[in-house]
Description:
Elements lengths: L4 E5 L2 H5 L2 H10 L5 E5 L11 E4 L3 E3 L7 H11 L13 H4 L3 H23 L1
Parallel strand pairs: 1-2
Antiparallel strand pairs: 1-3, 3-4
This protein binds FE2/S2 (inorganic) cluster (FES).
FE2/S2 (inorganic) cluster binds next to helix 1.
Amino acid sequence: MSSKQVLICQYQSCLxxxxxxxxxxxxxxxxxxxxxxxxxxxxxxLGATVRILPDEIWYCRVKPTDVNAIAQSHxxxxxxxxxxxxxxxxxxxxxxxxxxxxxxITVENSTIARRQHTNDS
Length: 121
Ligand code: FES
């Protein structure tokens, strides 16, 4: 049996984002990890929150359709699913995402434009 635990937040904000369905999907998958309905994990604005222990890997905005990817990649093969990693907790992983890299470039360009505007005035 796996030593991993999958904590799926079942508190207000995450429930509003479908965490009950995420929990149901984990309970239906074939993983031998312990599936644990959890209290608030303090990451309410990015629910549904899923936390894998003892790895301390945090997933955010998890949907039922993401559960198979987490089960197969992370729980069976110890490979976290980069696209679902919580960006504040795992920023190094998330920077590999092209979408967020593009966002960072946009922010950087915006900052440069503001500096140039300030210097021109
Ligand atoms: S309600 Fe889920 S992390 Fe707080």
